[in-house]
């Protein structure tokens, strides 16, 4: 049974949550929970998904906004991690072809202490990276650039001590759109998904087995029970908090949250042509991204232990100073100050505290002996020429001698690995991981759920999630640019300006056809046709409940389109007030909430 997915159906959806029994209830509507919901619903399980906030409001709208291939892992020849990462990235390109976009990345190399790569080791890493990623297109194949070639492409980059750079393929991502498209597809396949419903207790039957959730509607404050055969905790940074709701298990903390900060400036202030990734020159083991987007440039990220409010992580003056010092050093003429920052975001990474198998952003400082490094390079060269197998590469890496290992663990050294635990009593906890691996994590979780259902005598046939597109992803993944162009042309033929059609297609993929077909509906006052239809679609089909939901997580107005946001802010709030039938005090409350979010995003409290 397919359910509608808007505010006006929310009451009916809550009634279904109260009155039906589910095969699976998922707590957490970030990318992990969304991925599980899609696979569960598509596999025929009666699935419910709840989140105490808006979908993706936590970590999953606060990433670096890349489907990152993880080339950095190849510093230690961590082939398995990169192989898994680039394979999953390729799958995301196929199941959500309208979301990832090719973003060739520049990696400058400087003659500085403790650099991540030398020019030689970078070339070896990039060749291996291309091989693992299956990159055969000359347009995207890696290359080494001389110092002069680097400065020709990026004239504002620091020239002192610059040796050259590598150019390789990475992908931009719209993280919150990836979440909502997964959830929408789950809903199309019969799932019941409701935001702003908070789990308050994990329930058990008389035998002590988990059999549901006591939940609270955060809008009406009503408490109710959701019955289910299985309950999955996919709450990201809140995993430990949800585990505390289950009185049958021990509550030893599993998570070690760290905070990542990103800052946005106008492109005129920091004009970069290519996404760029470089060492901080602070000998802290970190690297920083600088990425052009829309008419802006953003940069980050920090990676520091975090012990504050998980809902509202604050960007501190120390965070800003750290990033600005690095950026102004790498781009000496930029002279960016706090006053230049137009937008920002801070995200909490749900790192698993005791999983130290591989690095994320910095990592444990380990060095290969010269002999081991030479052996690895020679074996990798043979592999790239198809004269050695992957097993031979893995063997020589496994046998490599590590010298100077520093056993102290810093926040950048905790693995981005994931963990699936069946707690005592049956609560399923899916923790950790990174955005690029979300489908793989969900697949592993579904395989375990299939086993558990089999023990109950129920057969569950899993879909092949590597070939199952998300909502909006019904495009030929081998012809994405051509498909996007066709959709834009359809929009133009329906009377939209080309820029308007492009805006809709890039945001909604194949669902753009649904929006174009609504063009005869009366637009909201003071909004263009594309802005009006985009808003209406979000209200009716994407569970938008507040202006912040729309401006921050269904579109990018708050982060990358602040100029237009200032123009349409009041018309959008007026339109939502009309649609939701808000009284004047409710409308004022939402406008105040939006203004507060804008001020926080602009770092007004620091300025």
UniProtKB/TrEMBL annotation:
<keyword id="KW-0560">Oxidoreductase</keyword>
<dbReference type="InterPro" id="IPR031656">
    <property type="entry name" value="DAO_C"/>
</dbReference>
<comment type="similarity">
    <text>Belongs to the FAD-dependent glycerol-3-phosphate dehydrogenase family.</text>
</comment>
<dbReference type="InterPro" id="IPR038299">
    <property type="entry name" value="DAO_C_sf"/>
</dbReference>
<feature type="transmembrane region" description="Helical">
    <location>
        <begin position="21"/>
        <end position="42"/>
    </location>
</feature>
<keyword id="KW-0274">FAD</keyword>
<feature type="domain" description="FAD dependent oxidoreductase">
    <location>
        <begin position="23"/>
        <end position="355"/>
    </location>
</feature>
<feature type="domain" description="Alpha-glycerophosphate oxidase C-terminal">
    <location>
        <begin position="466"/>
        <end position="586"/>
    </location>
</feature>
<keyword id="KW-0285">Flavoprotein</keyword>
<keyword id="KW-0812">Transmembrane</keyword>
<dbReference type="InterPro" id="IPR006076">
    <property type="entry name" value="FAD-dep_OxRdtase"/>
</dbReference>
<dbReference type="GO" id="GO:0046168">
    <property type="term" value="P:glycerol-3-phosphate catabolic process"/>
</dbReference>
<dbReference type="GO" id="GO:0006071">
    <property type="term" value="P:glycerol metabolic process"/>
</dbReference>
<dbReference type="InterPro" id="IPR000447">
    <property type="entry name" value="G3P_DH_FAD-dep"/>
</dbReference>
<dbReference type="GO" id="GO:0004369">
    <property type="term" value="F:glycerol-3-phosphate oxidase activity"/>
</dbReference>
<protein>
    <recommendedName>
        <fullName>Alpha-glycerophosphate oxidase</fullName>
        <ecNumber>1.1.3.21</ecNumber>
    </recommendedName>
</protein>
<keyword id="KW-0319">Glycerol metabolism</keyword>
<dbReference type="GO" id="GO:0004368">
    <property type="term" value="F:glycerol-3-phosphate dehydrogenase (quinone) activity"/>
</dbReference>
<keyword id="KW-1133">Transmembrane helix</keyword>
<dbReference type="Pfam" id="PF01266">
    <property type="entry name" value="DAO"/>
</dbReference>
<dbReference type="InterPro" id="IPR036188">
    <property type="entry name" value="FAD/NAD-bd_sf"/>
</dbReference>
<keyword id="KW-0472">Membrane</keyword>
<dbReference type="Pfam" id="PF16901">
    <property type="entry name" value="DAO_C"/>
</dbReference>
């Amino acid at each position: 049974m397919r359910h509608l997915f808007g505010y006006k159906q929310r009451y009916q959806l809550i009634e279904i949550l109260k009155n039906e029994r589910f095969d699976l209830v998922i707590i957490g509507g970030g990318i992990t929970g969304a991925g599980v919901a899609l696979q569960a619903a598509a596999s025929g399980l009666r699935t419910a998904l709840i989140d105490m906030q808006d979908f993706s409001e936590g970590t999953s709208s606060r990433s670096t906004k890349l489907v990152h291939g993880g080339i950095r892992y190849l510093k230690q020849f961590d082939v398995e991690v990169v192989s898994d990462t680039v394979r999953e990235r390729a799958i995301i390109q196929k199941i959500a072809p309208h979301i990832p976009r090719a973003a060739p990345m520049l990696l400058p190399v400087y003659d500085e202490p403790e650099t991540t790569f030398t020019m030689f080791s970078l070339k070896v890493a990039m060749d291996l990276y291309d091989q693992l990623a299956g990159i055969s297109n000359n347009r995207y194949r890696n290359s080494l650039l001389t110092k002069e070639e680097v400065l020709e492409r990026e004239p504002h980059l620091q020239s002192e001590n610059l040796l050259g750079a590598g150019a390789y393929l990475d992908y931009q991502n719209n993280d919150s759109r990836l979440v909502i498209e997964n959830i929408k597809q789950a809903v199309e396949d019969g799932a019941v998904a409701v935001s702003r419903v908070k789990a308050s207790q994990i329930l058990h039957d008389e035998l002590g087995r988990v059999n549901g959730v006591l939940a609270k509607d955060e809008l009406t404050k009503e408490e109710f029970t959701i019955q289910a055969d299985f309950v999955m905790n996919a709450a990201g940074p809140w995993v430990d908090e949800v585990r505390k709701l289950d009185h049958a298990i021990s509550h030893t903390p599993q998570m070690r949250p760290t905070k990542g900060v990103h800052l946005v400036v106008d492109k005129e202030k920091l004009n970069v042509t290519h996404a760029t990734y470089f060492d901080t020159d602070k000998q802290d083991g970190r690297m920083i991204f600088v990425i052009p987007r829309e008419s802006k440039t953003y940069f980050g990220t920090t990676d520091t232990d975090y012990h504050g409010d998980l809902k509202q992580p604050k960007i501190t003056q120390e965070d800003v100073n750290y990033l600005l010092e690095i950026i102004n050093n790498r781009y000496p003429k930029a002279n960016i100050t706090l006053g230049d920052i137009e937008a920002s975001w801070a995200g909490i990474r749900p790192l698993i505290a005791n999983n130290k198998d591989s690095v994320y952003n910095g990592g444990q400082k380990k060095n290969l002996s010269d002999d081991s490094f030479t052996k690895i390079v020679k074996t990798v060269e043979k592999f790239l020429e198809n004269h050695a197998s992957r097993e031979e590469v893995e063997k020589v890496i496994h046998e490599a001698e590590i010298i100077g290992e520093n056993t102290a663990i810093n926040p950048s050294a905790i693995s981005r690995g994931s963990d699936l635990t069946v707690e005592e009593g049956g609560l399923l906890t899916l923790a950790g991981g990174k955005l690029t691996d979300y489908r793989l994590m969900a697949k592993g979780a579904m395989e375990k759920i299939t086993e558990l259902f089999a023990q109950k005598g129920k057969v569950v046939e899993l879909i092949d999630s590597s070939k199952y597109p998300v909502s909006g992803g019904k495009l030929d993944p081998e012809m994405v640019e051509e498909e996007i162009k066709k959709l834009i042309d359809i929009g133009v033929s329906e009377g939209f300006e080309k820029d308007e059609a492009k805006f809709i297609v890039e945001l909604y993929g194949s669902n753009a056809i649904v929006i174009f077909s609504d063009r005869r509906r009366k637009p909201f006052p003071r909004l263009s046709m594309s802005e009006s239809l985009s808003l209406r679609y979000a209200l009716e089909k994407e569970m938008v409940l507040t202006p912040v939901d729309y401006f921050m997580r269904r579109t990018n107005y708050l982060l990358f389109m602040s100029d237009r946001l200032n123009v349409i802010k009041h018309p959008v709030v007026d339109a939502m007030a009309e649609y939701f039938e808000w009284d004047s005090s409710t409308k004022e409350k939402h406008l105040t909430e939006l203004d507060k979010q804008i001020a926080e995003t602009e770092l007004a409290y620091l300025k």
